[in-house]
Design brief:
With about 450 residues, the protein is mainly alpha-helical. The protein folds into 3 domains: about 90 residues, Fumarase/aspartase (N-terminal domain) (Fumarase C, Chain B, domain 1); about 250 residues, Fumarase/aspartase (Central domain) (Fumarase C, Chain A, domain 2), CATH 1.20.200.10; about 100 residues, Ribonucleotide Reductase Protein R1, domain 1. It is built from 18 helices and 6 strands. It has a two-stranded antiparallel ribbon with strand order 1-2. Strand 3, helix 8 and strand 4 form a beta-alpha-beta unit. Helix 4 packs across helix 5, helix 6 packs parallel to helix 12 and helix 7 runs antiparallel to helix 10. The protein is elongated, with a radius of gyration of 31 Å. Bound molecules: arginine (ARG).
């Protein structure tokens, strides 16, 4: 076996077909697993010593040699080397460092349990990093909400004005979905935390390897129960792809709100210059590209989930080479969020409400429900109150005036029991303050919500 021959060159004679080489190689993608591959290999060398397979001295030589390999890998880019994948590359560099004894490292191990181990180590770390940076986005939302309790916005359903809400309440409606995502990502971290090493290619390890020691060395939470399942289980990766896709979906909804609210037609929110772009043609443009790109990137995240589901579907038992496709999609989801999350965080931190536009947009029809509730409090059944208010709103539309500008006579025509007290209803503050029940938009409920959100962070 020569220095760059494949790990299986004893079995397959002759050169690999030229057309097979790029299909077979995954080094450019899995090179980023080198720290995990080194760690896993060092733990394996120690386990082989403990099992009596290697002499103490051989174990030390391998561990030290792997340290030197790590130094070389950290100092220069090796992704263009001819090696098939990161495992082959590390093994070849180890030969260069320590000679023949390098050939003992792979005893009792297969690339099948090796790659599953490396990938899970990466996944645990990646999920944890996402939990952290997602927390930063949530904290930006929370800060913005804290500053926006006194602003009242039209609240929309079906993108039609529904009822007035506090701006902070709207902002926090984007906090909680991300908070659920953070919990999902913590769960993903735990799901990734199952040690496959010691499963071999499929049937398990024929040497007395202490898997508990491996688990502890590598920081896994549990040990896989079935070697066949261990080498092909990518459920944690699916959960990762799903959790990140859901982050994308949530951010795309926030982004869509920012696009809409930043338009001239709404004009509620202004993004800072650092997160806006101009047009090469239209001099007046101020485009919310940050929000559009975040919304667009969610497509990749969703696509990656579908890709992985499709790769896994219908695979026969055990390891199959199709599984090599698992890494690119997860790396892409991770890279996408690594770019997206700080950008959306910055956009939120620089966003400002434009209260004059908001006030102009508040249509007194937003208080129609409050008017019905007012009637209910005088003893009118809600269904009847609904009908009365609908008539009043229609009259305002017929006359082409805001509903609070109608004369008392018009109100009384719709319902004779009304007197001039009815005009108290047309007060934004009164409307939001009425909704004090937990989770509502009254100041107290919103302040409680802010406290709850702070506790979560
Ligand atoms: N590059 C491979 C992967 O990512 C490593 C495992 C290869 N195993 C094998 N039996 N060819 O899945």
């Amino acid at each position: 076996m020569g220095p760059t021959d494949p790990l299986w060159s004893g079995r397959i004679q002759g050169e690999m077909a030229e057309a097979m080489v790029p299909l077979n190689r995954s080094l450019a993608v899995d090179i980023r697993l080198w720290p995990q591959d080194i760690r896993g290999s060092q733990a394996w060398a120690r386990a082989l010593v403990k099992a009596g397979v290697l002499e103490d001295e051989e174990g030390t030589t391998l561990v030290d040699g792997l340290d030197r390999v790590a130094t070389r890998l950290s100092e220069s880019d090796h992704s263009d080397e001819a090696d098939e994948d990161i495992h082959s590359l590390v093994e070849r560099l180890l030969y260069e460092e320590v000679g023949e004894v390098a050939g003992k490292l792979h005893t009792g191990r297969s690339r099948n349990d090796q790659v599953a181990t490396d990938f899970r180590l990466w996944g645990m770390d990646a999920a944890e990093r996402l939990v952290r940076i997602l927390g930063e986005v949530e904290s930006a939302l929370l800060d913005w909400a804290t500053q926006s309790v006194e602003i009242i916005l039209p609240g929309y359903t079906h993108l039609q004005q529904g009822q007035p809400i506090r701006a902070a309440h709207w902002i926090l409606s984007h906090f909680w979905p991300l908070e659920r995502d953070r919990a999902a990502l913590r769960a993903v971290r735990d799901q990734a935390g199952v040690l496959p090493l010691g499963s071999g290619a499929i049937a398990g390890c024929p040497f007395p390897i202490d898997r508990e020691l491996l688990r502890a060395h590598l920081g896994f939470l549990r040990i896989s129960e079935n070697s066949i399942d261990a080498v092909s289980d990518r459920d944690w990766a699916l959960e990762f792809a799903f959790a990140t896709a859901r982050v994308g979906v949530h951010l795309s909804r926030l982004a869509e709100d920012l696009v809409l609210f930043g338009s001239k037609e709404f004009g509620f929110v202004r993004l800072s210059d650092g997160f806006s772009t101009g047009s090469s043609l239209m001099p007046q443009k101020r485009n919310p590209d940050v929000a559009e790109l975040v919304r667009g990137k969610s497509g990749r995240l969703t696509g990656n989930l579908v890709s992985l589901l499709t790769v896994l579907k219908g695979l026969p038992t055990g390891y199959n080479r199709d599984l090599q496709e698992d890494k690119g999609v997860l790396f892409d989801s991770m890279d996408t969020l690594t770019i997206v999350l700080p950008a959306i965080e910055g956009a939120i931190r620089g966003a400002e409400f434009q209260t004059d536009h908001i006030e102009a947009a508040l249509d007194p029809q937003l208080l129609a429900t409050d008017l019905a509730d007012y009637l209910v409090r005088t003893g009118v059944p809600f269904r009847k109150a609904h009908e009365v208010v609908a008539t009043i709103v229609r009259r305002a539309e017929d006359q082409g005036i805001p509903v609070d500008q109608l004369s008392l006579e018009v109100f009384q025509e719709a319902y004779s029991g009304l007197d001039s007290d009815v005009f108290q209803v047309f007060d934004w503050e009164r409307s939001v303050e009425a909704r004090e029940a937990l989770g509502g938009t009254a100041r107290k409920a919103v302040l409680d919500q802010i406290m709850a959100a702070q506790t979560r962070l």
